[in-house]
Amino acid sequence: MNKILKSIATLGFVGYLPIAPGTWGTGVGLLFVLLLKPSLTSHAALILFGFILGTISSTAAERVIGRTDSGHIIIDEVVGFFVSVIYVPQTYGYLVTAFFLFRFFDILKPFPIRQAERTLKGGLGVMTDDLLAGVYTNVALQICNTIIR
Hints:
The protein is mainly α. It contains seven helices and no strands.
């Protein structure tokens, strides 16, 4: 069961791509939204279900891999990206901007993202820092959307 959960947390082989697996994980989230265009209800359900599954699978993956918040674990990037774009216009411009902003906040980890990552343990810590990076991204996009209107 732990191997299956590890595969979920790493999105199979994607988390093992040699360069920037977190960026690839964010790309999976972007492609998912672009191709499937989930309804608002489905989008919210994906975030909730993804956060729960991500927390469980990331905890198991850390045990199997033997490292805390391994770079191979990328389900957090997918769910974080989903948070980034909920209630945001689903245009290419907004989605691509969300991709770059999310990566920026995920790497920079402004307050309180870094503190959450350090304080929360296991899969909850893995998932929460990306959830917060998604919130930062979403807020920035909402501000842009308000100004543009």
